[in-house]
Specification:
It contains 19 helices and twelve strands. By secondary structure, the protein is an alpha/beta fold. The protein has three domains: 62 residues, Transferase, Pyrimidine Nucleoside Phosphorylase, Chain A, domain 3, CATH 1.20.970.10; 256 residues, Nucleoside phosphorylase/phosphoribosyltransferase catalytic domain (Pyrimidine Nucleoside Phosphorylase, Chain A, domain 2); 88 residues, Pyrimidine nucleoside phosphorylase-like, C-terminal domain (Aldehyde Oxidoreductase, domain 3). The strands form four sheets. The chain has a four-stranded mixed β-sheet with strand order 1-4-5-12, with helices on both faces. It has a three-stranded antiparallel β-sheet with strand order 6-10-8. A three-stranded antiparallel β-sheet has the order 9-7-11. Strand 4, helix 10 and strand 5 form a beta-alpha-beta unit. The two termini are 32 Å apart. Pfam families: Glycos_trans_3N, Glycos_transf_3, PYNP_C. Belongs to the thymidine/pyrimidine-nucleoside phosphorylase family. GO terms for molecular function: 1,4-alpha-oligoglucan phosphorylase activity; thymidine phosphorylase activity. It catalyses: thymidine + phosphate = 2-deoxy-alpha-D-ribose 1-phosphate + thymine.
């Protein structure tokens, strides 16, 4: 079947064969299928959908469009985690070294910010000297030796996805569930992993605004990953308020360092990590799921205990610093940056206008403020300012007095920072009684619910 046949089949609600999907992906990579026909096909898929067999065929064809990593025999399982993105979502940063400390290999290939959603690579590149671009050989050697590496997508990894995603972005078809699923999973499958935990965000600042759509995406991804041979579980997590107390590239790196440093004291005192309770819960829950999926824990309770005990030890901070050094970070310059309270040219506090309980901290508004200050992107090619952002964020359910700090805005100049602080003020609502705030994990979709194996 040719490109016109593919378009007509999907337009009429039919299904393409695995051979058709392989031919399509080959045409994408070789540029033998014109963009106008690909755009028409994407729109047909957007309206007509794809069944599971088609989605699996497209995912595997995209995976095989470039390099697929093969790992040496080793008792350490190869695993990863993927998040659909949010504001202040820094889970991957402490999770990768924790997993390495737990005896996993973590070949984490991450992305950049777009819109209000932060990007792991942009955060890491705020560290002086850190290289997010490693050769495939360097990447594989570091994962084998150290246990973890966090890098960007190389040119030869799933090249079909880059072309298709750019067209989806230009044609209004980004929101197609099967196309989202195949895009995410093709890259993860190319890493050569055996187990995957998905963090599907849900709420004000998430791609999936409501629980029903988040469950649909989570279920589809778990089912498809299982069909492709990767044990997978999805956690649907809250993204109504930012995760942690800071959002913005460098500010999140500093927060991760403070969190891991508090954990490294190893005394298990929950007061040390109380400011980052939501972050700690998600890091432990993700690690625990991977321990269970790989058969390294007999129960979720046992897995949580092992993950928590390892987190509250010096090991994750040690692996974090080793990873930074291995990827070129200047640790002396890094430490000097950590010592400075404000790196942006200006910082302005947002103060509580009255006494009350915090009932809303709108993550979407926080993300918009950061993006508008230059900390995020309107277009993929935009540069980002690593030093702008928001920290000292209060959390829903906390009590404040008039004049207390609700947040602090770091900006590029006085006028823009003051304007951003005024805008950020509207992200907060105060009430006369405490608001019940659900925990960061809303629910789980496991292999049995997803139907995968």
């Amino acid at each position: 079947m040719n490109a016109l046949g593919w378009i007509e089949t999907k337009r009429d609600g039919g299904a393409l064969s695995a051979a058709d999907w392989r031919a399509l992906v080959d045409g994408v990579v070789r540029s033998t299928v014109p963009d106008y026909q690909l755009a028409a096909l994407l729109m047909a898929i957007y309206f007509r959908g794809m069944d599971d067999a088609e989605t699996a065929a497209l995912t595997l064809a995209m995976r095989d469009s470039g390099r697929v990593f093969v790992w040496p025999e080793d008792p350490r399982p190869v695993v990863d985690k993927h998040s659909t993105g949010g504001v202040g979502d820094k889970v991957s940063l402490p999770l990768a070294p924790l997993l390495a400390a737990l005896g996993f290999r973590v070949p984490m290939i991450s992305g950049r910010s777009l819109g209000i959603t932060g990007g792991t690579l942009d955060k890491l590149e705020s560290i002086p000297g850190y290289r997010t671009r490693l050769s495939p050989g360097e990447f594989q050697a570091q994962v084998q030796e150290l246990g973890c590496a966090v890098v960007g997508q190389t040119e030869d990894l799933v090249p079909a996805d880059r072309k298709l995603y750019a067209l989806r972005d230009a044609t209004g078809t980004v929101a197609s569930l099967p196309l989202i699923t195949s895009s995410i999973l093709s890259k993860k499958l190319a890493e050569g992993i055996s187990a995957l935990v998905l963090d599907v965000k849900c709420g004000r600042a998430a791609f999936m605004r409501d629980a029903e759509s988040a469950r649909a995406l989570a279920t589809r991804m778990v089912r498809l990953a299982g069909a492709c041979g990767v044990q997978t579980v999805a956690l649907v997590t809250a993204m109504d308020q930012p995760l942690g107390r800071a959002a913005g590239n460098w500010l999140e790196i500093r927060e991760v360092h403070e969190f891991l440093s508090a954990c490294a004291r190893g005394d298990g005192d929950p007061r040390r990590t109380a400011p980052w309770q939501d972050l700690e819960i998600l890091v432990v829950e993700c690690a625990a799921r991977l321990l269970c999926l790989t058969g390294r824990a007999g129960s979720l309770e046992e897995a949580r205990g092992r993950a928590c005990a390892c987190l509250h030890s010096p090991a994750p901070l040690r692996f974090w610093l080793r990873m930074l050094a291995a990827q070129g970070a200047d640790l002396e310059a890094y430490e000097k940056r950590l010592e400075q309270d404000v790196l942006a040219p200006c910082a302005v506090e947002v103060l509580a206008p009255a006494d009350g309980w915090v009932t809303v901290c709108d993550a979407r508004r926080v993300g918009e403020v950061i993006r508008d200050l230059g900390g995020g992107r309107f277009r993929a090619e935009d540069a980002v300012d690593p030093n702008v952002g928001v920290d000292r964020l209060v959390k829903v359910g906390e009590r404040v007095r008039q004049g207390d700090v609700l947040a602090r805005v770091h900006g590029p100049d006085v006028d823009r920072t003051r304007a951003a602080a005024r805008q950020l003020q509207t992200a907060f609502c105060l009430g006369d009684r405490p608001e019940t705030c659900p925990g960061p994990v809303l629910f789980e979709v496991g292999p049995s619910e997803g139907g995968g194996g």
